[in-house]
């Protein structure tokens, strides 16, 4: 495909897909370990070798714990380092984490290597849980509603420190644009995004300095790195998330699995995020 078409860059989501058909679904987080770091670096190098253009990763909306949220940006930075790769900073994904883990936007933005951001995404999403009482509700990155004002505020804050930014993209599922009202709102969101970006460009003096092309040729091993234990754990976790009848059942299955006392740290998963993982997996199974 890269020989037939010219791609400015190629990107992938962070995490792994639950469900038998892994081409569909939403990504779930993985442990931040030396093994997963080596695996991710190997895959990015192989993508770059195949496409001969910059490669990047998108930050994940879903996390199991606050520690995971705080370490995500640094781990992404480590993953992309050998390829001189970049980050797609999805601001609605950050918004999900800001709400779900009660962390401030300034703190969270500072946990990411913003000079490695080449593309920014904004979108809307949905709430699940007791929305009326505003208790226990979880923000989901479902791409099916208007962009919240908080995400536009994040965009205004993120533009300046992202000195190598080249693209800003508004996302929404086409199936959510099924009424004239939703289409009008989408246009309003686009014009608002465009105005914010243009105002920034009018003030911007520094030119993009990082092309995100490889700094050096890295020799690939003949065989891709494999981590059989990680694969088995992913299969086991996917099965648990897909068959668990409820939160208590999921906890029971996890307590009897190989994930106990492992790098997955299932013991510290926030209950509301385990419930969210169940909803994601069972939607896409």
Write the topology of this structure.
Blueprint lengths: L9 E4 L2 E2 L9 E2 L5 H18 L3 E4 L7 H15 L5 E5 H10 L4 H5 L7 E6 L3 E5 L4 E6 L8 H11 L7 E4 L9 H24 L24 H16 L3 H9 L15 H14 L1
Parallel strand pairs: 1-4, 4-5, 5-6, 6-9
Antiparallel strand pairs: 2-3, 7-8
Descriptors:
285 residues; 5-stranded parallel sheet; two-stranded antiparallel sheet; globular
Sheet with the most strands, sense and barrel status: 5 strands, parallel
| Rg from Cα | 19 Å
Number of helices: 9
Total beta-strand segments: 9
* Largest sheet strand order: 1-4-5-6-9
- Unreliable sequence segments: none
Describe the structure.
This protein has helices at residues 34-51, 66-80, 91-100, 105-109, 149-159, 180-203, 228-243, 247-255, 271-284; strands at 10-13, 16-17, 27-28, 55-58, 86-90, 117-122, 126-130, 135-140, 167-170. The mean pLDDT is 92. It starts with 9 loop residues before the first strand and ends with a helix. With 285 residues, the chain is α/β, with parallel strands linked by helices. It is globular and about 60 Å long. 31% of the residues are buried. The protein is built from nine helices and nine strands. The strands form three sheets. The chain has a five-stranded parallel beta sheet with strand order 1-4-5-6-9. The chain has a two-stranded antiparallel ribbon with strand order 2-3. Strand 4 (55-58), helix 2 (66-80) and strand 5 form a beta-alpha-beta unit.
């Amino acid at each position: 495909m890269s020989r037939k078409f010219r791609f400015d860059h190629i990107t992938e989501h962070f995490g792994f897909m639950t469900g038998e058909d892994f081409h569909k679904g939403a990504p779930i987080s993985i442990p931040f370990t030396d093994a997963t770091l080596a695996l991710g670096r190997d895959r990015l190098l192989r993508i770059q070798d195949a496409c001969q253009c910059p490669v990047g990763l998108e930050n994940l909306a879903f996390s199991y714990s606050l520690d995971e949220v705080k370490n995500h940006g640094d781990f992404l930075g480590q993953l992309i380092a050998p390829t001189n790769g970049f980050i797609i900073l999805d601001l609605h994904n950050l918004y999900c984490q800001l709400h779900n883990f009660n962390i401030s936007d300034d703190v969270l933005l500072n946990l990411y290597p913003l000079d490695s951001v080449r593309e920014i995404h904004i979108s809307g999403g949905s709430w699940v849980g007791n929305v009326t009482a505003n208790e226990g509700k979880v923000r989901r990155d479902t791409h099916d509603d208007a962009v919240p004002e908080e995400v536009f505020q994040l965009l205004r804050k993120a533009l300046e420190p992202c000195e190598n930014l080249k693209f800003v993209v508004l996302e929404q599922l086409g199936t959510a644009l099924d009424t004239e009202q939703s289409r009008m709102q989408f246009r309003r969101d686009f014009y608002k995004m465009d105005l914010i970006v243009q105002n920034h460009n009018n003030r911007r003096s520094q030119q993009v300095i990082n092309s995100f092309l490889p700094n050096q040729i890295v020799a690939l091993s003949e065989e891709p790195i494999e981590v059989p234990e990680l694969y088995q754990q992913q299969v086991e976790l996917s099965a648990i998330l897909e068959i668990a009848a409820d939160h208590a059942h999921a906890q029971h299955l996890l307590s009897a699995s190989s994930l106990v006392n492992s790098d997955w740290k299932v013991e510290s998963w926030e209950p509301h995020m385990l419930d969210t993982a169940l909803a994601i997996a069972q939607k896409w199974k």
